[in-house]
Design goal:
single chain; alpha/beta; 8 strands
């Protein structure tokens, strides 16, 4: 078990998270799938076990400090280290992403989005850093979005012109800042940190009727960044091997 790579994927009971766990598991990596409900997490892990993947379920409501602490203790006790952390869990506003609102964004929406998409990602990463530092090659992948790119939002005729949802976009921009700062802070360690834009994927969040990318392709960027070598990128923002502007 000592030389076996261990990966934690949050929000992995469905969609991109589940597919990411599957693809990593197919490469011989032990995967821990989290969900808000332990039974759901275990059911998802069992599906992968039936495919010959070494998979485990774990309860994690990412906004819960108690859950984060318990998860860290579980990984410490069960595996003694963590090689890969994929901060996949995230939420979108409860209204359409295609309705532009800035000044009308409510306090409740800001708090709902930022608690999950930013604060929880930072706190979970911090809780698991001691375990990642025990890895020979720790990798952190933050699931961001092209909607968090200030550069692309500012471009004339931007491909994301139609989507200007302040709460969601700002949470992903903040997550990108975390990636940048953490990568610099950990530059002298064995840990690489990058942001991933999965693409516009046919998920519950992305829209199964309008999104152009299949889930299998939406997981590829996270998997690539999770498996980079020591000469791989650090502190960048990527989609399918292409670096994106902040």
């Amino acid at each position: 078990m000592k030389n076996q790579k261990v990966a934690l994927i949050t929000g992995a009971n469905r969609g991109i998270g589940f597919e990411t766990a599957k693809q990593l598991g197919e490469k011989g990596i032990t995967v821990i799938l989290t969900a808000r409900n332990l039974d759901v997490a275990n059911e998802s892990a069992e599906k992968l076990k039936q495919q010959g993947i070494d998979a485990y379920g774990a309860k994690l409501e990412v906004t819960s400090a108690d859950d984060r602490k318990a998860l860290a203790a579980y990984i410490e006790d069960k595996f003694g280290k963590l090689d890969i952390l994929i901060n996949n869990a995230g939420v979108a506003p409860k209204r359409s992403l295609f309705v532009k609102t800035t000044v009308e964004t409510t306090e409740e929406e800001f708090e709902y989005i930022f608690q999950t998409n930013f604060f929880a990602q930072v706190y979970l990463t911090n809780a698991l850093l001691p375990l990642l530092k025990k890895s020979d090659a720790g990798r952190i992948v933050n699931l961001s979005s092209i909607l968090g790119s200030l550069t692309m939002h500012s471009q004339p005729n931007s491909p994301i012109e139609a989507i200007k949802v302040l709460s969601y976009d700002a949470s992903k921009a903040a997550l990108n800042m975390f990636t940048n700062h953490l990568a610099i802070e950990l530059a002298d360690t064995n840990i690489n940190v990058n942001s991933a834009h999965p693409g516009w994927v046919k998920t519950e969040l992305g829209g199964t009727d309008v999104a152009p990318m299949e889930i299998v392709d939406g997981a590829k960027t996270s998997v690539e960044l999770a498996l980079i070598g020591e000469d791989g990128p650090n502190g960048g923002f990527y989609h399918l091997g292409e670096q994106l502007p902040w």
